[in-house]
Amino acid sequence: MGGVWVTLSSAILYPFAMLSSFSAPALLEKYGAKRVLLYSDIGFIFAAGLTAISSRGAIVLGRAVMGVGVGLSGVAVSPLLAEVSPAAQRGRIGAIHQLMIAIGSLLSSILGYAFCSYVRHGWKVANLVLALPAAIQLVLHDHVPQSPRWLLRKDFVREAEAVLRRFMDADTANDELHSMARDVQGPQHSVSGGSSSLVMGSPHEPSNARFLGDQASARVRSASRRDQTWMDVMALGRVAVVGLGLTVFQALSGVNIVVGFSTMPFRSAGLSEPILGTLLVSAANVATTVLCSRFLDYLGRRALLLASTSIMTGSLLLAGFVILTVENEVVLHVFAIFALVAYIFGFALGVGPATWVVVTEIIPTELRSKAMCLFIGSNWLANTAVVGLTQVAINGLGGCALTADPADEDACSDEKQMRGVSLLFILVSSICAAEAAFVFLYVPETKNLSLEEISRRFRKGNEGPRKIAEPQGDSSTFSLLAEEQEWDIDSPNGSDSR
User: Disulfide: which of 120, 264, 322, 366 matches 186 by Cβ 3.0-4.6 Å?
Assistant: First the structure.
């Protein structure tokens, strides 16, 4: 394949992932996360077969189908994991999800390098291997849980409780379901006094009496069922600002320049085997994500995001100035590699995993599917812009024609390419610095809070920007509900509604 076809086959995944993310709410509401994951697995297998065909059109089509699968799985997995995770472990589980993605990226880089270097037509084998994870998940599909929020909206109260009990002890599962069922009806119903609430019975009643039986299903059915719109998501105000800000900043912070196009900056930095730079970056991503999974629930999301964005800012500045000013090749190689690996360390420490943990936590239950589709779709939109404009930016900053082919020495010399890469790194470092400021000003700490507790406290609108809540004493759902009987959480100022 020529350079144009290679670029097209690589980049086309991003817009199709974006389109499927924006289109996913209807599928999620109709079929639930479990069925959507089934569809994405089938798409991955089909896409792997297409990309193994010696045809430009088939490869491009396969990559487009793969993008659809990536978008669907993205909007299904993160909210599902958040719903079934205990509050004290939700950060770690979200980080483990990102760890599995990082490990998959590393393995695909290793297999791709091995097959393409040592096996005849190895690229076909490498592409077919992409079907293996999807095939395994298809075989194990019966063990994938359905979204308890979706089950409640469909009146399957018993099934929702059964899902939660697979991952939590009985009391915690009942408390989570109690809170989740109450929140499914949406913020348009007042909960003061509990008259219109989905809270079933008294907190002192046995849990089964609160959740099981016809009376429980009847109250769930009485909840509001109108279709949610994009305007409902935007009406969340600060939640929408934080969600869109974190996901768009994550895409603009340059990770797809360093990872997806890592052979280019490493080659520009002077490495004779740039694929080794890609493997090094992927390995650093895996190692740091392991570290993040251990500290996300201990140190908190906000602290890791601030540390992460600071490291990314400094490392990209270092990489840019080293490539721009250092002439000694040995020094250039050492510092460029160090800076880019440090950047990946920073990204995997917080911006990678913590972004999606925070985003899934702050969205109210009744809008989770719609909001996640908006946030993930916006992330893919920004990624599409980054991927599409990276080479154009390098050409422009380096002093080449915007449409110059980097493989054409006459059109754009290596020296100009290196200058463009260095200036692009410096530019992206300013975006990372802006993200650090955004996190400092707007992103709250959410560790150790239930999802419904976070969304309700966001609605109060009377807490400071840096921390929306800190559990005091007994942080159980029953304590929160007792507090809400005295305060109207839907009041714009959180004022006393007694």
Answer: 366
